[in-house]
Design goal:
single chain, alpha+beta, six-stranded antiparallel sheet, two-stranded antiparallel sheet
Length: 209
């Protein structure tokens, strides 16, 4: 049998091709599904990152969720062993104000807290959450957390705004999604927590570009 005849015989042997296809098909399906799942996971990660970025930007230029931040005075206080007088620059202060969807107040921890609790502006919190949902609709209020911390920026007794421009961190926690391959079983995959920080700007208003 010549080489040409052997090749023609192999080509015409449909039983062999069908068997090979049956062996390769599961691997092909797994490869396609794996590629799709990896793409969906990457998309969810991007949504989480962008949502926190949008949320932090929104918080920097709108009314603070912790209402009294705009009224806090640092005149006459000692921060980092430095006494603060009228017009003095405020050094980095040791405090973190945390606001969540739960309750009506925001808590403050650290040695430089001006007050122990702050009134939570529920409208400002809801507006920030709505802004983040434009990027990631599955976000719920309980997934969002806002923190205000000492930044080292600001002057005591500033007549044009708050004494301090705090460092704002927006966190997104407890997010998950259902992969296509687990959809029929109702299984979910947990996503990592997301966070983005930015320094407060005018901290006034209800809208952001």
């Amino acid at each position: 049998m010549t080489m040409r005849n052997l090749l023609l015989r192999l080509i015409r042997d449909e039983r062999g091709m069908a068997a090979e296809f049956a062996l390769v098909l599961p691997l092909l399906i797994l490869f396609v599904l794996g590629t799709i799942e990896a793409g969906v996971y990457a998309w969810r990660l991007n949504q989480g990152e962008k949502a926190t970025q949008w949320g932090a930007r929104f918080a920097a230029v709108t009314n603070p969720v912790a209402e009294e931040i705009t009224d806090d005075s640092y005149i006459g206080r000692t921060i980092n062993s430095t006494f603060i007088g009228q017009g003095d620059r405020i050094p980095i202060a040791d405090f973190v104000i945390t606001c969540t969807s739960a309750g009506t107040t925001c808590s403050c921890t650290g040695s430089d807290c001006v007050r122990g609790t702050y009134t939570k502006n529920a409208i400002a919190f809801d507006n920030l959450t709505d802004r983040m949902q434009l990027v990631y609709p599955e976000i719920a209020p309980e997934n969002v957390q806002i923190e205000y911390a000492g930044s080292g920026l600001g002057f005591a007794g500033d007549p044009n705004g708050p004494d301090m421009a705090p460092l704002i961190t927006v966190r997104l926690t407890g997010m998950s999604y259902t992969p296509i391959s687990l959809n029929i079983f109702g299984g979910t995959v947990n996503l990592p927590d997301f966070a983005y920080s930015i320094t407060a700007e005018d901290s006034s208003g209800t809208a952001s570009n």
